[in-house]
Amino acid sequence: MSNIKELNAGKILIAEPFMTEPTFSRTVIGICDYSEKEGTVGFILNRPMKVDLKELIPGIKVDTDYHIGYGGPVGNDTLHYIHNLGDLLEESQFVSRGVYWSGNYEKLKVLINSGLVTSENIRFYIGYSGWSPGQLESEMTESKTWVVSDLDPNYVFKTRYSKMWQQALDHKGDTYSVIAQIPKTQSFN
């Protein structure tokens, strides 16, 4: 379905509709780092969690509801963030237009506490999705588990979690729009 040559930071992986692996069923994963030699790092963009940011980051004083999601099954004791702050947050890694990964953690806390960074600017993820070199490519060629598309900043910052998978397939058009209409639970009666 998708071309492996499309894999790169700034792309999304859309789970094919019949994937049975519960961790990745109907997920959209933003790829933040990709290297044929070192592997792939991404975050599940549409698995929200009910966690307060104050529980995760000591010293946060604001009461705003920040978006916190399950990033994936690797490193569940780690916290990551994707934002649209660009150079405002030093040490950020450019992912794609309007999307950056990580950055100076201490400055981030100051920006949040001062109100300069709001829940509209950033998404937090517990854990990440990672593939060793060649693993993701193998999943794509042998199992055909992923569809590759572009990472639009709206997926990260604007799209409702419950609609993201369908919307990402719809944006691919053609056959993918039809696939997006397949219901989550199948009934053969």
Description:
By secondary structure, the protein is α+β, with helices and mostly antiparallel strands. It has a domain at 4-51 and 68-83 and 124-179: VC0467-like, CATH 3.40.1740.10. Helix content is 24%, strand content 29%. It contains 6 helices and 9 strands, in the order E-E-E-H-E-E-E-E-H-E-H-E-H-H-H. Strands 1, 2, 3, 4, 5, 6, 7, 8 and 9 form a 9-stranded mixed beta sheet that branches. The chain is globular and about 45 Å long.
> Helix/strand/pairing class, anyone?
alpha+beta
Task: Output the number of helix runs.
Answer: 6
Contiguous low-pLDDT stretches (5 residues minimum) are none
Give the CATH topology of the domain at 4-51 and 68-83 and 124-179: VC0467-like
Please report the distance between the alpha carbons of the first and last residues: 29 Å
Mean pLDDT: 90
The counted number of beta strands is 9
CATH class of the domain at 4-51 and 68-83 and 124-179: Alpha Beta
CATH architecture of the domain at 4-51 and 68-83 and 124-179: 3-Layer(aba) Sandwich
Radius of gyration: 17 Å
**Fourth-tier CATH superfamily name of the domain at 4-51 and 68-83 and 124-179:** VC0467-like
**Percent in strands:** 25-35%
Element order, helices and strands? EEEHEEEEHEHEHHH
Overall form: globular
